[in-house]
Amino acid sequence: MRTIPKKADQIFVALRDRIVYLEYLPGTLLSEKELCEEFRVSRTPLREAIRRLEDMGLVKSIPRFGTHVTAIDINEIRCAFEVKKKLEALAGALAARRISKDRLEELRRITEEVEAYPEGAENRRLIELDARFHEVIYEATQNSILKEFLENLHSRCARLWASNLSVVIPPEEVVAQLRKIYNALKQGDEEMAAKVLEDHVNFFIDRLKEKLL
Fold it and tell me: What is the distance between the alpha carbons of residues 42 and 77, in angstroms, rounded to a whole number?
């Protein structure tokens, strides 16, 4: 299997984040010409990035009509959460077994930043910190297939949260959960890490259910 070029990967991350954080709203048409000019690339790496976004369900390409950002499908997100919470538990168990000191330290720093997050501030930065916290855990699993699945699912679910910033999630509640996850991983407790990560996902599901699910 060929490696995705670094430039295509950078474009993918940039476009994914714009979609997840609603800089590109559902229905937005992505112009190949404009994006190639912006990123200073040929169509090849751009199309590679768009193909990955399409695999994630974030965009849809239609011949002769172009590529547009997909709508947020609530039923699809519900299905994604059902799968995500079980895979997060698996990731927790594997990470507890394999996580390095450097990654543990990064989790500690993220938790402290969330703890210092201003009450009542916009949720976007909180979403970004939560995403990075989970990404570190996915990396710690040392399982590239699981990491790819979970990054896909997390992006889909984060877009729903970003579309409902009025759903207030107190930082102190998030901090309490992140500390439980961090402690379980630090202790190498696979069973506890699996449980607290699944509980963490359920917490967000319950919060969003109040609004949509």
Answer: 33
Of the CA atoms within 13 Å of residue 124, those in its CB half-sphere come to 9
Of 93, 14, 1, nearest in space to 46 by CA: 14
For 74-114, write each residue's pLDDT tens digit. Answer: 888 889 999 999 999 999 999 999 999 999 999 999 999 99
Percent helix, strand, coil in the chain (nearest 5)? 70, 5, 25
Domains observed in the chain? 6-69 (1.10.10.10), 74-209 (1.20.120.530)
Residue 168 is predicted with a pLDDT of 60
Q: Which of 151, 195, 197, 193 is nearest to 58 (CA)?
A: 151
Angle at 52 between CA 163 and CA 91, to 5 degrees: 75
The CA distance from 17 to 56, in Å, is 13
